[in-house]
Specification:
6-stranded antiparallel sheet; globular; NADH Oxidase; 7-stranded antiparallel sheet; 20 strands; 545 residues
């Protein structure tokens, strides 16, 4: 076993919450040191993007089926829309003397460690030549970080469709570590997954495909986005690069050639990153980020050979961009709202990695995450603990692993294409609450869930760099759940605080082979009447830190 893999395994164990002790973190919040939620590159010019009404555009359900929406041409309007629907502000919230921003992409604690970058060729109204931009969500604009020549651009996209752009994502770990300490790396990776999902769904709304180029190493990603430079501002760790291309174009490449990427290091990079906090506490984020960093690889992921299935869900008369921009994280559930089983099944169907289904087309690996579901208030379905296999070929393996389960049974009316099974029929509210750090929100919704994956085998197969990808997949599922809850007229929220090993014990998992990576709850939200909602743009609210 390599030292890096051992470091990853040690980190995961050390950051588990237990009934008797939580993972190491700050005993209080140092509000005077709260990180600035907005990174800017001081001295870089800013190109304003357009804001387009969420009432314009495609139906929500059409975005999840490739080919339903015609491909928009790449231009200032469509690129503006892509960022407006994926990484932009959605509103401001205010209470008494405090004001803070909400964003389209969800984040643990609303701390937003994820930064977005655009790498593109000439775009009329945006840039005359190939350019690297940093996205500034507060201004809804793009900061010019570097310009490069057409020859380098052509070399970079040698095997990809002509009309393509790249979206890069990075994480500023300190933003999460300020509040969550040692466990913050997990939450940063959740947020990367949320962002991948947000970008993928926004791209689908424009008739574009989104696909991770996962052959690239961490150093190559830093070169492309200009985050390698030495400075004393907070570090940005490179996460991934997403290829955006028209849905009717064939993508042959699994990545980009290495030589052109090396040339990015010598570009003239413009602007200096702002400082987010006056001081910092070392919670070991650099150590785990280094251990899980990725080398360049020619990856041959296991093929996902599940045959395509016909889309069996109806197209509802709701608009995609309205769902995107009104998405909110619930802070409490009412403990009374229920849902029909048809709604429940419809939500779960959207999370299944059926080949061709958005947003899971972005991920090049087969599904690793499966859902252990606590059903509380779903009409026509007994309360209890259920398990959803997102890869049905893994049924025998999980039947053997989940030793606490009763004989697996499909619930009444469950669609054939949904591999959902009842494990234990019982009132699961108390268990859900206790495992989610005794939070009522896990028991007061219609249902809650944990995201479980085979853990050691993929790490052994690919290497320690696969570790964050468990969280990315979980975050991608989370983004779908957020939007599906909005579409159903209710709310949801991710739960990052849970007792890992207690969840494993409930399921009967005996060793480290399987791990729990994220929790979630969906139900009727309780709104706080003290909060005032302000428009995302068009005014200049005072930001309270």
């Amino acid at each position: 076993m390599s030292d890096s893999l051992q470091d990853v395994l040690d980190y995961h164990e050390a950051t588990k919450h237990q009934f008797h002790a939580y993972a190491n973190g700050p005993g209080h919040l140092d509000w005077s040191n709260q990180p600035d939620p907005f990174r800017r590159y001081v001295g870089a010019s800013l190109v304003s993007l357009k804001q387009i009404s969420p009432g314009d555009g495609p139906l929500y359900d059409d975005a999840f089926v490739p080919g339903r929406i015609p491909s928009a041409p790449f231009g200032l309007d469509s690129i503006s829309q892509l960022f407006f629907d994926s990484l932009a502000l959605s509103a401001w919230k205010s209470i008494e003397t405090s004001t803070w921003a909400l964003r389209v992409n969800p984040s643990s604690g609303n701390l937003h460690p994820t930064e977005g970058y655009l790498i593109c060729g000439p775009v009329e109204g945006l840039c005359d030549g190939p350019t690297v931009f940093h996205y500034a969500p507060m201004e809804h604009g793009l900061e010019v970080r570097a310009e490069f020549d057409e020859e380098l651009w052509e070399e970079l996209r040698d095997e990809i469709p002509r009309d393509s752009i790249f979206i890069g994502l990075t994480s500023i770990q300190w933003r999460e570590a300020w509040k969550y300490g040692h466990r913050a790396y997990r939450y940063c990776q959740h947020d990367t997954g949320h962002a991948i999902g947000a970008v993928s769904i926004a791209a689908a709304g424009l008739g574009w495909n989104a696909r991770l180029l996962d052959n690239l190493g961490s150093e190559e990603l830093a070169n492309l986005m200009g985050t390698f430079q030495g400075h004393d501002a907070e570090k940005e760790d490179p996460d991934c690069l997403i290829l955006i291309s028209p849905h009717d174009e064939t993508v042959k490449a699994n990545g980009l050639p290495g030589d052109p990427i090396t040339a990015f290091r010598s570009l003239e990079w413009l602007g200096n990153p702002n400082h987010l906090s006056p001081s910092h506490v070392d919670w070991g984020m650099d150590a785990i980020a280094d251990a899980a960093s990725k080398p360049p690889t020619q990856i041959l992921y296991e093929p996902f050979e599940q045959p395509p299935r016909p889309w069996s869900l109806p197209t509802r008369p709701i608009l995609l961009r309205q769902m995107i921009r009104q998405r909110r994280s619930a802070v409490a559930m009412d403990g009374a709202t229920g849902m029909e089983k048809e709604t429940f099944y419809g939500i779960l169907l959207k999370t299944v990695h059926v080949p061709g289904n958005v947003p899971f087309t972005a991920l090049p690996w087969k599904p690793h995450i499966h859902l252990a579901i606590f059903v509380h208030r779903v009409a026509g379905i007994p309360a209890g603990l259920y398990f959803l296999l997102r890869d049905p070929t893994q049924k025998a393996k999980f039947e053997a692993a989940l030793t606490q389960a009763e004989p697996w049974q499909k619930p009444d009316g469950c669609p054939d294409e949904l591999a959902l099974y009842l494990l234990i029929e019982a009132d699961a509210r108390s268990a859900a609450k206790q495992i989610s750090c005794t939070q009522d929100i896990a028991s007061d919704g219609c249902f809650s869930l944990g995201m479980v994956a085979e853990y050691l085998a993929p790490l052994d197969r690919y290497g320690p760099w696969f570790y964050p990808r468990f969280f990315w997949e979980a975050g991608l599922i989370g983004q779908v759940l957020y939007l599906e809850a909005e579409a159903a007229g209710i709310r949801s929220t991710g739960i990052g605080c849970y007792f890992d090993d207690s969840m494993h014990e409930l399921l009967g998992l005996q060793d480290q082979q399987y791990q729990d990576f994220y929790h979630f709850t969906i139900g009727g939200a309780v709104d706080d009447p003290r909060l005032t909602t302000l428009e995302a743009y068009g005014q200049s609210p005072i930001i309270s830190q």
